[in-house]
Amino acid sequence: MGKLMELLVASVMPVLKLLIITALGLFLAVDSVDILGMDARKHLNNVVFFVFNPALIGSNLAKYITLKNVVMLWFMPLNILFTFIIGSLLGWVLIRITDAPHALRGLVLGCCAAGNLGNMPLIIIPAVCKERGSPFGDVDACYEHGLAYGSLSMAIGAVYMWSYVYNIMRLYSIRSSDGPKFEALAQATSSATETLEGLSTGRSGPLLPLAKSTATGGHTEFEQKLKQGIQIFGTMFNLRRLFAPSTIGAIVGFAVGMIPHLQGLLIGDKAPLRVFQDSASLLGEAAIPTVTLVVGANLLKGLKGSEVRLSVIAGVIMVRYVALPLTGVVIIKSAVHLGLVQRDPLYQFVLLLQFALPPAMNIGTMSQLFGTGESECSVILLASYALASVAVTIWSAIFMWLVA
């Protein structure tokens, strides 16, 4: 009983820290205070997106990830993919059961599929390492490995988020009757207009030169179609978002960590270029508190209410906090039994935790991007994060007990 209480205390403290900072962000966003108003949140979000997150991910991966570690951590990308696929399947079942409105189906699938794989693990894992009842051994080693696991989780989650979930929500918003006009449609319309203008203003010429022109025109037409195809592909899979600053930071961090010569130049007390690593680490330390404040400020919309059904909110919560964690226990325990996952308690804990997180905050960004379900998204996120204090605490204690 005493050990269980120690695990509960060790798991509740990180979540409480997160909630306190989130509540502060919410307070700073109310109209009477208006420190984190809409414009302030937008600018702060840009700083986090373009500066803090890439610095955090890149510096941590460069410092803690090596070629040997990457080989040992091969199961994590697969595990995160499992959370997305299983979550979206459970979301599809939820849509069938609740008969959610068509305009909200992409939002429901997104909330069920994508967990907060970036900020919450980076907050929870290092904090758990520092608690007295932690089962993960040496505090310093646990802290370093925890930051590496959290950074890798954030980088992989960002790739899946903008390649998988983005396209699910995009397809449902296109099918919605009030969906916005997308860049692909605008590009196609513009291309068609230019073609018609070219036909209407074309001039006739002698027969033989026309034959030569036709060959050249065919070549030009092929190039134009190829260019349009590349543009449509880029729009469909949102390559700009896929190669977001966080992803680029992860690529740089992997390169530095896995190439010994680069690591020797940048990492360590005697590295000649260590000032760059120290500067990146200093910037990265601001990422977690800043983004947590923004998360709290963004939840303000949810307090204003919405017409989203209670059954939909309850269903998303059941998927994220009951069905997915139970599925995760089965998957990770089976993987350990089959020898696919190393017997490192902290690593197993991180893999399990990835199944028990609230919906990703980027779901709100996507709903704003597509112009569908913005207020409903705020309500779902508010309810999910309000219950995170209980759900994530309980599951963290259970996971620590399972891996101890």
Automatic annotation (TrEMBL):
<comment type="function">
    <text>Involved in cellular auxin homeostasis by regulating auxin metabolism. Regulates intracellular auxin accumulation at the endoplasmic reticulum and thus auxin availability for nuclear auxin signaling.</text>
</comment>
<feature type="transmembrane region" description="Helical">
    <location>
        <begin position="282"/>
        <end position="300"/>
    </location>
</feature>
<dbReference type="GO" id="GO:0080162">
    <property type="term" value="P:endoplasmic reticulum to cytosol auxin transport"/>
</dbReference>
<feature type="transmembrane region" description="Helical">
    <location>
        <begin position="379"/>
        <end position="403"/>
    </location>
</feature>
<feature type="transmembrane region" description="Helical">
    <location>
        <begin position="346"/>
        <end position="367"/>
    </location>
</feature>
<keyword id="KW-0927">Auxin signaling pathway</keyword>
<feature type="transmembrane region" description="Helical">
    <location>
        <begin position="71"/>
        <end position="95"/>
    </location>
</feature>
<dbReference type="InterPro" id="IPR045033">
    <property type="entry name" value="PILS1/3/4/5/7"/>
</dbReference>
<protein>
    <submittedName>
        <fullName>Uncharacterized protein</fullName>
    </submittedName>
</protein>
<feature type="transmembrane region" description="Helical">
    <location>
        <begin position="312"/>
        <end position="334"/>
    </location>
</feature>
<dbReference type="GO" id="GO:0009734">
    <property type="term" value="P:auxin-activated signaling pathway"/>
</dbReference>
<keyword id="KW-1133">Transmembrane helix</keyword>
<dbReference type="GO" id="GO:0005789">
    <property type="term" value="C:endoplasmic reticulum membrane"/>
</dbReference>
<dbReference type="InterPro" id="IPR004776">
    <property type="entry name" value="Mem_transp_PIN-like"/>
</dbReference>
<comment type="similarity">
    <text>Belongs to the auxin efflux carrier (TC 2.A.69.2) family.</text>
</comment>
<dbReference type="Pfam" id="PF03547">
    <property type="entry name" value="Mem_trans"/>
</dbReference>
<keyword id="KW-0812">Transmembrane</keyword>
<keyword id="KW-0256">Endoplasmic reticulum</keyword>
<keyword id="KW-0813">Transport</keyword>
<feature type="transmembrane region" description="Helical">
    <location>
        <begin position="147"/>
        <end position="166"/>
    </location>
</feature>
<keyword id="KW-0472">Membrane</keyword>
<feature type="transmembrane region" description="Helical">
    <location>
        <begin position="242"/>
        <end position="262"/>
    </location>
</feature>
<feature type="transmembrane region" description="Helical">
    <location>
        <begin position="107"/>
        <end position="127"/>
    </location>
</feature>
<feature type="transmembrane region" description="Helical">
    <location>
        <begin position="12"/>
        <end position="32"/>
    </location>
</feature>
